[in-house]
């Protein structure tokens, strides 16, 4: 017997996938920003004037 997805099931599946994708993207971006800011703070504490990371985008 072939399983047939209804419109509601398809939308629900797409919604769950979208929510999970958003969560992982948010957490990855947050961790990346934390590491970058941690490096900038360390450079400022050491008094280094040479920046190893690119300037922030405006």
Radius of gyration: 21 Å
Shape: rod-shaped
Largest sheet: none
Question: What is the helix tally?
Answer: 1
Percentage of β-strand residues:
under 5%
Instruction: Provide the structure class.
Output: mainly alpha
Number of strands: 0
Distance between the termini: 56 Å
- Please trace the helix and strand order, writing H or E for each element: H
Q: Overall pLDDT, averaged?
A: 80
Helix content: 55-70%
Given as residue ranges, the uncertain stretches (5+ residues, pLDDT < 50) are none
Write a structural description.
The protein is mainly alpha-helical and about 60 residues long. The chain has one helix and no strands. The radius of gyration is 21 Å and the shape is rod-shaped. The chain starts with 6 loop residues before the first helix and ends in a 12-residue tail after the last helix. The model has no long low-confidence stretch (mean pLDDT about 80).
Question: Which tags fit this structure?
Answer:
58 residues; mainly alpha; 1 helix; Membrane lipoprotein
What is the strand and helix layout of this fold?
Layout: H1 7-46
Protein name: Membrane lipoprotein
Transmembrane segments: 6-26
Keywords: Membrane, Transmembrane, Transmembrane helix
In short:
It is built from one helix and no strands.
């Amino acid at each position: 017997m072939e399983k047939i997805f209804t419109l509601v099931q398809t939308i629900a599946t797409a919604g769950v996938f979208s929510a999970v994708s958003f969560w992982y993207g948010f957490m990855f971006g947050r961790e990346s920003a934390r590491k970058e800011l941690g490096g900038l703070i360390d450079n400022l504490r050491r008094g280094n004037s040479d920046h190893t990371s690119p300037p922030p985008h405006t």
